[in-house]
Amino acid sequence: MTDSAKYIIGTSGYSFADWAGPFYPPGTKRSEMFEYYARQFQALEVNFTFYAIPNPRVLERMASRAPADFEFWVKANQETTHKQNRAVNSEFVANLEPLRAAGKLSGVLLQFPQSFRRTIENRKYLSAVLEDFKSLPAAVEFRHDSWDAPAALEALRERNVTLVVPDVPSVRGLFRPPPTATSRTAYLRLHSRDPKQWYRGMAERYDYLYSQEELKSILQQWAPLQEQVDRIYAFFNNCHRGQAAQNAEAFRRILGQIS
Prior knowledge:
259 residues; alpha/beta; TIM Barrel; eight-stranded parallel barrel; 8 strands
């Protein structure tokens, strides 16, 4: 039986022009999108921080405009995860202080590319990065299936770092573990299930709408994990044409969180 109270649902990003109509009321300005989003969902993956080091004043404004119980997961910068440049980490962590001070920072999401394989060198790099972020809760998403190893998961458990379970197509080489927890927090990111689109480009990769049957099946698969964790975050990253928001709302309806 699903414990709906443990699920915290949101999307990866919120400020998309093509969400006006499918999700936001037609004509909604970008400056109005966050407040509308925060009335519909409980949490947000902040993804603009992947492209630029976050400005603390921007995060402070977001925290002030969000409901008291709203939560933020902040995506680590590409310098850290994709270019293996740790020089930005100290500033990145410091600039998250407005969210932490407001009690709304759930943690930092470290999403590594598929090229980041489980080599000795990369294991050492990951260990160093997690040390840089040790003052904050951290969640790690792998894309290469070499990380699907008991030793890798145990290393996360020892550090109390959350494993992100990506929902992705059945494509050779992709990290596709079953529902798994390495901390008292579980984390699901829903990307796509279309293998034909995965390597066609970023726009095509995440152009996918989950069916009601798929969403119900996901909840059934995650139900046995509920007793092991305090909360389960589920973020939809299929962001084109508002699909992520539509699926997130449908997921909440299935859970009985909204009517």
